[in-house]
Amino acid sequence: MSITRFGADGRRGLAGIGLALLSAATFGTAGPFAGSLMATGWTPGAVVTLRIGIAALVLTVPAVLALRRAPGALRRCLPQILAFGLVAVAGAQLTFFNAVKRLDVGVALLLEYGGILLVVVWAWLRHAQRPRRLTVVGGLAALGGLVLVLDPGSRLDTVGVLWAALAAVSLAVYFVMASRGDGALPPIVMAWSGMAVGAVTLGVFAAAGLLPFRTSGADVTLLDHRMSWLVPVAGLSLIAGAAAYAVGIVASRRLGAKVASFAGLTEVLFAVLFAWLLLGQAPGAWQLAGGVVVIAGIALVKADEREPGPQAPDPITAEAGGPEGPGTPDPLPEPVTAEAGEREREPGPQAPDPLPVPVTAEAR
């Protein structure tokens, strides 16, 4: 099944875009929630582990109900689940938060979302889907818009850049694996199982002392108010965790990895918006202009996805009478056989019957 299969049905495509924007918005709340916790002494490992661990618990009941309609799905998809949980869930978040510790948030986000270019390259190499002009132009425009939105500074840390590069790879893996809609694993089960694997893995690393794990019971500041640390933890788990991953997988299966990854760029815009609302970090004029450029780039990529050949074979298929080549000769043999039967009188068993009688009568 093609990874980039957007646009066969207009309403399905629009619904996919809407779900992708909703997923990006929910993912965009993670930065402000996590930032408020880390400002009080939480480590990235603690934030990520609690986020995906609680989210997995929340999704357990609906995931079990979905598994009743897909018996044996977990066993069949175990390698996919392990890869998704370790790389696309735990790895993506852990590498990004470690990058944020050494880089400005804007620089880390910009480097992480370079992963969408990896998705395009992967689709080119794996599925021979060579990027066309609109995809290239749209991708460059979207990344250029991100530069305006994020306004990265000049301070770069080599280790931080390496963490951000790993985050980019993890992000690309997330979009590619989330878009595999072969029907073997329901989206809610994919999100639940991936987060469960990620949480257990991070928990084991934390218990072994390989992952710094420190929390704090101090109040946090959100919306210019002091509030309990439970508020951002709940937001991270329910909104930026359970809802974001479940909706994002559905959107990726509707849109395909390439379009879903470009639509995911709006997470940065939502992150800036929520940082403004929750933390009082107002965006500037350049950031607003960059947001417009990002949306324009996404529109170009989406338009490029609606161009390809799934629509071209339709008139040919309609004329041929079906999508399969061997089906076209079916109507031809009947008239040819009928005409041949009239001209040759079908010399099989019917031709000798009338001849012996008249010939024998004339001979006698």
From the structure above, extract its key features:
single chain; 364 residues; mainly alpha; 18 helices; 71% helix; disordered N terminus
What does this structure look like?
- This protein is an all-alpha fold and about 375 residues long.
- Helix content is about 70%, strand content about 0%.
- It is built from 18 helices and two strands.
- It has a two-stranded antiparallel sheet with strand order 1-2.
- Helix 6 crosses helix 11.
- The N terminus and C terminus are likely disordered.
Alpha plus pi helix count: 18
SSE arrangement, N to C: HHHHHHHHHHHEEHHHHHHH
If you compute it from the alpha carbons, what radius of gyration comes out, rounded to the nearest whole angstrom? Answer: 29 Å
Mean of pLDDT:
75
Percent of residues in beta strands: under 5%
User: Structural class of the secondary elements?
Assistant: mainly alpha
Percent in helix: over 70%
Terminal Cα separation, in Å?
A: 76 Å
Number of beta strands: 2
Report the sheet with the most strands, covering strand number, pairing sense and barrel closure.
Answer: 2 strands, antiparallel
Strand order, main sheet: write it out: 1-2
